[in-house]
Write a structure and sequence with these properties.
The chain is mainly alpha-helical. The chain has 2 domains: about 35 residues, no CATH class; about 45 residues. The protein contains 3 helices and no strands. The termini are far apart.
Length: about 80
């Protein structure tokens, strides 16, 4: 469990500590503005995902309906990305 936690935290630190500064540096070098914000639709889908995950983890038994709901939210996210 400790190894998994360490790997997860390492991935988070490398993403926040390396990727975001690299993107900002590239934006400065190219002269293009970088917007690090989410759209209202993405925030809504994130909130929906968190609520659905909470409902899934608090259920005594998982059913196919739980999985279908997660797949539906994923499909909605895909539609919002490519729309």
């Amino acid at each position: 469990m400790q190894r998994v936690s360490n790997l997860c935290h390492g991935a988070l630190v490398s993403t926040a500590g390396l990727t975001i500064p690299a993107v900002l540096t590239i934006g400065l070098l190219t002269g293009r503005p970088v917007l690090l914000a989410e759209t209202p639709v993405d925030l809504l889908l994130l909130g929906l995902t968190l609520l659905l995950t909470l409902a899934t983890f608090s259920a005594r038994r998982l059913t196919a309906l739980h999985g279908a709901a997660h797949l539906f939210v994923f499909a909605l996210y895909g539609v919002s990305v490519f729309a």
